[in-house]
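I keep forgetting this: the sequence line spells out the residues, with the fold written below as integer tokens. I include a record here:
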Amino acid sequence: MNLDSMKDTLSAARQEGKRFWEIVLEADMKNRGVSRTDSLNKMAAVWHAMREASHVYTGERRSVSGLVGGQGKLMREYAAEKTPIGGDFTAQVIAEALSMGESNACMRRIVAAPTAGACGVLPAVLIPLYWQDNLTEDRMLEALFTASGIGAVIAYRACISGAAGGCQAEIGSASAMAAGALVYLRKGTDEQMGHAVAMALKNLLGLVCDPVAGLVEVPCVKRNVIGAVNAIAAADMALAGIESRIPVDEVIDAMGEVGRRLPVEFRETALGGLAATPTGKAVKKQLHGDRKKRTLTIKDARWKLDKSGAETVQNTAAT
């Protein structure tokens, strides 16, 4: 079936006596013309890439701009030395979200779920829970199919791009996907999963995309933290029996409408919000100045190449 409605997908799962994730898996098999094993193997590759990105993070790298780097490491050190207000699990989630967002900014390998800018949300909640609850890989793949199905519906009915719908479409969608996955992993019902998705998305409705200097760094990395913690809150509320008064499909539709109505300044253009603050403008001016200097250095190196050969270029580049 087409993954264009949470209501219809949940209804199909009930009628066929299956879980939401199984309907999503079958849709993938049909749409891509692959076997069940092929579909599961592809999702396993995604899960392994998430874990690998987490494993290789050291906190030593910095982005080219210098705006991002080391924050995940700082959070891990704080959690190890102090008593985090939100407890150990939440501290792990925050550290993971920061680490993954930084890895994206530092050009490391990450999983765009659903986008690179929101890459920290899903792994931030899934990896710590995987270790804490001693979950099997099969369960994690099922949770990822759950998340991907939610993302597919959001992408169809609204959008997942900051340029099209603001940060609500990126971090908001990722948070909704994570909330649904958490409910599944904690053995909630598919109906509870739908409520978690709705609440997570509602909580970030209207969030603008205002990257400083046009880079997916500030405030993007720290918003991955908010998306992850929001997912936990939405999942816990749903598991407690709290329901969204607005049906999930209507919430998604509302997000799409809000995104279409957002002024262009608040949709990844770096013309409004935090990007338009005095500090945001100063950062942009500084970075553009540094970029101009680097360009002049390259031109100078090419001129010296014509005069003296490759050795001079190597020395100039090293300088």
